[in-house]
Amino acid sequence: MRTPIIAGNWKMNTSIDEAVALVKQMKDALDKISGAEKVLCPPFVSLVSVRELIGGTSIKLGAQNMYFQDKGAYTGEVSPLMLAPLCQYVILGHSERRQYFGETDEIVNKKILSALNHGLSPIVCVGENLKQNEAGKTTEIVTGQIRRGFADVPSIDNVVVAYEPIWAIGTGKPATGAGANQVIGLIRSTMAELYGEEAASQLRIQYGGSVTAANIAEFISQPHIDGGLVGGASLKADEFVAIVAKAAEIKSSLRKPV
Predict the structure, then answer these.
(1) Active-site amino acid positions
(2) What is the mean pLDDT of residues 88-104?
(3) Residue 113 CA neighbour count, 13 Å, CB half
(4) Closest-CA residue to 25 (of 236, 194, 169)
(5) Count of domains in the chain?
(6) Domain with 210 in it: what CATH number?
(7) Do 123 and 90 touch, CB atoms closer than 8 A?
(8) Does some domain include residue 258?
(9) Would you say the pTM of this structure is higher than 0.85?
(10) Does residue 227 lie in a domain region?
(11) In a domain, 11, yes or no
(12) Residue 243 and residue 239: Cα distance in Å, rounded?
């Protein structure tokens, strides 16, 4: 059984002081929750402070992005060498990076290879926009992102994939549990073609897009969905704790024999 993983993507929110205050509000409650992996992904400037706060707990740390080069004249970028001593995870290929910063599948591919080479576990985001969804191109877009993004990636043992339908991110209009499960099942079958059934069956795939404590049960109860990449709700301590607790509770109950 795959261990569910809930990651909070704070995006470009919180000062260092606000990040510290937020972690202090949720740290003890999150640490007590077993049966789910918990990951906080604050802005770069707060990584060190958050790392110090969660040291010795079961909470993991993730960055929101990275460049694929180790070092060099790339003003404003952060390299895997800088992140590796701080984080376990790094979010790659988020739709906002693709939309606002021109990231292509080929760039995402280079980032995945670099992250894995430096011992970082990438959370790789894929998903279609509203126009593509309405045109019936979800399968084409998502499978294409997977195939191009994972070109020449030797193994998915330390990879997490996040399916984020772009039309659901920050809109308050999430996909349905059944709809998300169908697409995530498609991602899993595509990975099976690339890496074999066993590897694909162990791959954890999250859903992201307007995830809340009120709707996490709809998603986490689906057979192919292994967690959530949580945006706005991760900035509210009680809400994020409730999401993690519900995910752990539901997946634990599904493991029990009937």
Answers:
(1) 94, 164
(2) 97
(3) 15
(4) 236
(5) 1
(6) 3.20.20.70
(7) yes
(8) no
(9) yes
(10) yes
(11) yes
(12) 6
